[in-house]
Amino acid sequence: MKDMCADCGANLRVENSMSGDRKEQVSASVAMVHSIPELVVSEQQAKEIGKADEERHVKTRKLVLLMDLDQALVHTTNNNIPPNLKDVEHFQLPHGNRMLWYHTRLRPGIKEFLKRISKLYELHIGTFGVRLYVHTIAMILDPSRSLFSHRILSRDESKPPI
Question: 98 forms bridges with which residues in the sheet?
């Protein structure tokens, strides 16, 4: 993970080099956690984990449901709006060297819907927004992290890591 062996703690990076410049070839190359693309495992481990996930889904009789966040579950804007609007969450996120205000309205009944549907599906959420944005919205929708856990995708995970 981030040029360090998660098994033994060995530093795999060549000194004074860029991330990814490794001293030796490693077998870990498959990212397994949406929100932590730097955490990679070997192809063999990925197959074993995938098989275990498949068996778990069959046993629990739950398929995966990947839901788009924006315009489906929530509506977010960074336009100036009154701070006292009912049912609107206001938060700030960094944008370059400044902080921008965002305003999010949840679709009516969405929390109850997610609670009910989570009994039938393993829930994942995704957006073309950045990682910090989607994790902020996930905490609004699921403060206990019982619905989505780590199953959160953003545009940061939709492109190969540099």
Answer: 95
Q: Count how many domains the chain has.
A: 2
Instruction: Give the CB-side neighbour count of residue 12, counting CA atoms within 13 A.
Output: 18
**Which residue range(s) make up the domain with 127?**
62-157
Determine, yes or no, domain membership for 162. Answer: no
Closest CA to 101 of 126, 78, 129: 78
pLDDT tens digits, 30-39: 776 666 667 7
HSE value, Cβ hemisphere, 13 Å, CA-based, for 74:
27
134's tokens: 């989607």
What does the pLDDT read at residue 6? 63
Average pLDDT over residues 87-105: 94
State which H helix or E strand residue 54 sits in: helix 43-60
Does position 46 have pLDDT exceeding 80, yes or no?
A: yes
Residue 98 falls inside a structural domain? yes
Q: What's the CA gap between 52 and 101, in Å, rounded?
A: 42
Would you state the structure tokens that stand for residue 12, as one six-digit string? 């795999």
Tokens of 80: 């100036």
CA distance 38 to 116: 33
pLDDT per residue as tens digits for the range 53-72: 899 999 999 999 999 999 99
Q: What is the pTM of this model?
A: 0.74
